[in-house]
From TrEMBL:
This is 2-oxoglutarate-dependent dioxygenase DAO. The lineage of its organism: Eukaryota, Viridiplantae, Streptophyta, Embryophyta, Tracheophyta. It comes from Linum trigynum. The keyword Iron applies. GO terms for molecular function: metal ion binding; oxidoreductase activity. Belongs to the iron/ascorbate-dependent oxidoreductase family. Residues 180-284 form the Fe2OG dioxygenase domain.
């Protein structure tokens, strides 16, 4: 397969997505620094990034170097296990079972592990997963993965709260999140392609609400800028050392009444080193209804998507095999303007 070159690879000035240093920002700011100026500014910038780019990079003191190194080493050990062992991880849910080097994505291997509930510190699924992979146990893997999962979920929920705060919706929606939101943790390895470049993950939009990705020191994530609709325009996101990437998904776009952008992205492998990445995916619970809150609908912002059950959307995506416009075709109302930026190539 010919891999279209990202327009900025080797360019002097790389395409830059917004970058935020969240420092130690956490839950407490939202409740105690009520309306604090710096906090409000950060929330607005996060919202702008989600609207304009559909993604941004950030650092947080919550995930120090030692934890990131432990995670990458744990993943190396995990993916080095025999295929028969890795294949023991099966789930009826999409993107959870072990996926090994399929035709469409021959260099990718991945696992998905469900969380029990976003606000509960419940490590049962990760414990069971570790025991399934290593009969003799692997406490280092379990501890790193467990801590990383929890920190990334914290950041995921924090970013959602920043977005809600910037839309002025803190009080109306924060209580609802735990009832309607779930999350899962995805572990990925991209093997080195034999040619100079290879597609690690095909172009897609995330169906879920918000994704946070961490990676080892091998770049590869590419995005399609919002204003570019031709398939030849891809730009590499240069993720600073130790930073994470947040990516807006289709469910959040629908919920926001089209305000935020679910950015199309893919992974292209260009080097000689394996790429490891890990993602925290926040998603509506299967039976939750994805629906724009009344505050985000008015005469200047008519309702763009009909309310829908998230599970029905996922089912539609997998059955229809629709490569583009899945959200718009599935739930778009006639009031929706033509939105070429919203195209989704299903994984
Ligand atoms: O590995 C990455 O950096 C991207 C993964 C991704 O896009 C996904 O799992 O949806
Ligand atoms: Fe993705």
């Amino acid at each position: 397969m010919v891999v279209p070159t990202a327009s900025n690879v080797g360019a002097e000035k790389p395409y830059e997505i917004p970058f935020f240093d969240f420092g130690a920002a956490g839950e407490e700011e939202i409740t105690t620094v009520d309306g604090g100026e710096r906090w409000r500014e950060l929330c607005d910038k996060v919202r702008e990034a989600c609207e304009t780019h559909g993604c941004f990079c950030f650092t947080t003191v919550k995930a120090p170097l030692k934890l990131r190194e432990g995670m990458a080493e744990g993943l190396r050990q995990l993916f080095d296990l025999p295929v028969e062992t890795k294949e023991r991880h099966v789930s009826p849910k999409p993107y959870r079972s072990y996926l090994g080097k399929k035709d469409a994505v021959p260099y990718l291997e991945s696992f998905g592990i469900d969380d029990q509930a976003p606000d509960v510190d419940d490590e049962a699924a990760l414990k069971a997963f570790t025991a399934l992979m290593w009969a003799q146990g692997n406490p280092e893997f379990r501890e790193s993965a467990s801590e990383m999962r929890a920190k990334m979920l914290d950041m995921n929920l924090l970013i959602m709260k920043m977005l809600l705060a910037s839309y002025g919706l803190v009080t109306t929606l924060s209580h609802a999140a735990a009832d309607t939101t779930t999350s899962y943790f995805r572990l990925m390895k991209y093997n080195v392609p034999p040619a100079a470049a290879g597609i690690g993950m095909v172009a897609h939009t995330d169906k879920s609400t918000l994704t946070i990705l961490g990676q080892n020191d091998v770049q590869g994530l590419e995005v399609q800028p919002k204003d570019r609709t031709d398939d030849s325009c891809w730009v590499q996101v240069v993720i600073p050392e130790g930073a994470f990437v947040a990516i807006v998904g289709d469910a959040l776009k629908a919920w926001s009444n089209g305000r935020v952008h679910s950015v199309r992205h893919r992974v292209v492998l260009r080097g000689e080193k394996e790429r490891y990445s890990w993602g925290s995916f926040l998603a509506p619970k299967d039976d939750a209804t994805v629906e724009a809150p009344a505050e985000l609908v008015d005469k200047d912002h008519p309702l763009l998507y009909r309310p829908f059950a998230y599970a029905d959307f996922l089912l539609y995506c997998s059955v229809s095999k629709l490569k583009e416009d899945a959200l718009k075709v599935f739930a778009g109302l006639s009031t929706s303007p033509v939105d070429d930026g919203e195209r989704s190539n299903l994984k």
